[in-house]
Amino acid sequence: MAGKQMLEKRVDLYRSWKILKWLNVVPENREDNERLLKIWLELFMALYGDLSERVKENQERDRLFLHFTNEVFPAAIDQYKWYESERLGYDIGLWKTLENTPMEHWYIETLSGFSEVY
Fold this sequence. Notes:
Blueprint: H1 2-8, H2 11-15, H3 18-22, H4 30-54, H5 58-88, H6 94-100, H7 105-117
């Protein structure tokens, strides 16, 4: 829970998330922002907590976090969305993909693999 509480305070990191642009979510759209913030916290709270424990330099922690959320994750989620859409025979949409991702085996493996780097 500490990771979530720490990450909830980092609105700057949320607003830097590349996926916001993909979805065309603007700060004024409160409903979409609340929904997406909830997904963002679920996806990345464990990573942020882990980085906070392991990396004492705040700028380095934030750099690693943003690298994962804006480089590693978008590439993986795009590939997963494409794969699932092909498997099901229709476009499942990015929102649905994001909502399903936190408990997916591939995502847990991706997080674990990234954790091994730092």
